[in-house]
Amino acid sequence: GEAPGVTELQRLTHLHSTPYRIEGFDISNLMGTHTVASIVVFEGGRPRKSEYRKMRIRGLDKPDDFFSMHQAVYRRFTGSLADNMPMPDLLLIDGGKGQLSAARRALDEAGVEVPMLGLAKRFETIIREGTEDIIVPHTHPGLRLLINVRDEAHRTAVGFNRKQRGNAMTKSVLDDVPGIGPKRRDALLAHFSSLGELQKASLEQLASIPGVGESAARAILAFFSENTPTPPAEDTPDSETISSQS
Predict the structure, then answer these.
(1) 163-219 pLDDT tens trace
(2) Parallel, antiparallel, or unpaired: how do β-strands 116-120 and 90-94 relate?
(3) Any residues with CB less than 8 A from the CB of 138 and at least 6 apart, and which?
(4) 15: alpha, beta or left? (left if phi > 0; alpha if psi -120 to 50)
(5) Phi/psi of residue 65, nearest 5 degrees
(6) Distance (Å, rounded) from C-alpha 216 to C-alpha 223?
(7) Angle (CA) 109 97 76, round 5°
(8) Whole-angstrom Cα distance, residue 93 to residue 105?
(9) Pairing relation of β-strands 53-56 and 46-47?
(10) Helix 141-174 vs helix 6-13: angle between axes, to the nearest 10 degrees?
(11) Phi, psi of 160 (to 5 degrees)
(12) Which long-range contacts (CB under 8 A, 24 or more apart) does 96-102 make?
């Protein structure tokens, strides 16, 4: 059975077919670095986590949401992602008219036609292309479904971004440890999920990682006892995130 919201959403937005498979796109570039995109998939109103995809946005020197959204949508509908993912019935873009038109340009370039909606955070307004926006009470099952997709895309993008930033932070710290080359550094990065975890490791734990060995393990411990790099602070959710979950 379908979760509530699918048929209500179709009626509300006048879609020609049932939005059974919805793909939600979000861009995250916390602190302006490591821009990433998430694609989440809902089928019949429920998340299909095994279908989620994440990507790093390439070729950006400063944050640019329109560029990033265009690239994410274009890459989703070309190459291996296009080959391995079924066509969605609806795309939900996190953002307003600007993000929507960047996504539309990407679809045109990929030669794909998919219905698309945007969701503007401030009043949870449903943005449509070339026609008026839709505002309904937040309790409307069709809007609730879109909000769930958007929140899930946002959560996934932020989590992936944080992991990328954590890796970059750990990587730059390890580059400073004498005697740790790229091979050992990558072995350590593969083993620990954060800098804090790496700092807590014992000599035995470090030495037992394939490709690290005891002398490198001693060098790492010595380095950390002299320098204690501070891991990046967890990001506090911004006011928008808080209000959208109420």
Answers:
(1) 777 777 777 778 888 878 888 887 887 777 677 788 888 999 999 988 888 888 998
(2) parallel
(3) 124, 144, 147
(4) beta
(5) -65, -35
(6) 10
(7) 35
(8) 13
(9) unpaired
(10) 100
(11) -65, -40
(12) 96/120, 96/127, 97/127, 98/65, 98/66, 99/65, 99/66, 99/69, 100/127, 100/129, 101/129, 102/65, 102/66, 102/67, 102/69, 102/70, 102/73
Q: What angle do CA 113, 155, 242 make, to 5 degrees?
A: 115
Please give the Cα distance from 69 to 37 (Å, whole number): 8
Q: How far apart are CA 139 and CA 42, in angstroms?
A: 19
**Per-residue burial over 176-212, b = 16 or more CB atoms within 10 Å of its CB, e = otherwise:** ebeebeeebbebbbebbebbeebbebeeeebbebeeb
Rounded to an integer, what distance in angstroms lies between the CA atom of residue 173 and that of residue 187?
Answer: 14
Determine whether 122 is exposed, middle or buried from the number of CB atoms within 10 Å of its CB (0-12, 13-18, 19+).
exposed
Asked if residue 48 has pLDDT above 90, the reply is yes
Instruction: Decide: 25 and 153 in contact? Cβ < 8 Å.
Output: yes
Query: What is the Cα–Cα distance from 65 to 67, expressed in whole angstroms?
Result: 6
Q: Residue 167 contacts by C-beta under 8 Å, 6 or more apart in sequence?
A: 189
Task: Write out pLDDT tens, residues 135-155.
Answer: 999 999 999 999 999 999 988
